[in-house]
Amino acid sequence: MKPTLNVRSVILSDVHLGTPHAKADEVTHFLKHVRCERLLLNGDIIDGWRLRRDGRWTKAHTRFIRRVLTLVQKKDTEVVYLRGNHDDFLARLLPMQFDRLSLVEDHILESASGRYLVLHGDVFDGVVKNMVFLAHLGDMGYALLLRLNRTYNWFRRLRGKDYFSLSAAIKARVKQAVSFVGKFEEQVAALARERGCTGVICGHIHTAADKMIGGIHYLNSGDWVESLTAIVEHHDGRFELITFKDFVQQFPMAKELPAEDAADEALPFPGTAQAAILAAVR
User: Fold this and answer.
1) pTM
2) Range of 192's domain?
3) How far is Cα 157 from Cα 13, in angstroms, rounded to an integer?
């Protein structure tokens, strides 16, 4: 029996399946070693923007989808998928319920610590909301930066150095980026206060956080492109920000695929999945 982390809820966001930067193997490994009553997929799980342009759906991306469905079918896990801006093709389907899987705009998580508003957070991004063309240009620039980042870290590995995020370093040093993140966090916390909630859980800005803002517990699940982070709710109502770097120390990744994943490699499902998703995003 696989060792697992047993929690009440898991919240993750910004996996960006359909892009070469998505850490699909890592996030699937994370879900395989977590047992939870509820899984909240807080937006940008599938990157419809990139799939419309030049994105590529891989077998690793399919394994993640299979894992989520396995949680629904065999593990009695409730899965709530919240729309993000990159998977905005889901907007025309909301709200929708399939047994223990639901598609929603936002969600109220009732915990022992109080009521938490869960939403992706793109509604507070003026560029995404009002200037979609500029948002797409920004996304293309971010993708270019990530490609540079991969090359840069390839050289770092050759020299025996740890991973270094160029985009995170830029966000931390550029005044406008720091200001945007701060305003975003304040606006999200203010909405939670208006809704009478104790806290708020969001994603979107790829900046993981666990802090108090004006009496509101602000949590951001980060992403599975660079930070590789998730939020878990323990059974006592306590929330924790988990990094994959720490998680994999306790639950190491196998060098080879498990038997059930190796069997999936022989299936033609990935191409079928990509065709279905491309039809949806278009």
Assistant:
1) 0.77
2) 5-281
3) 27
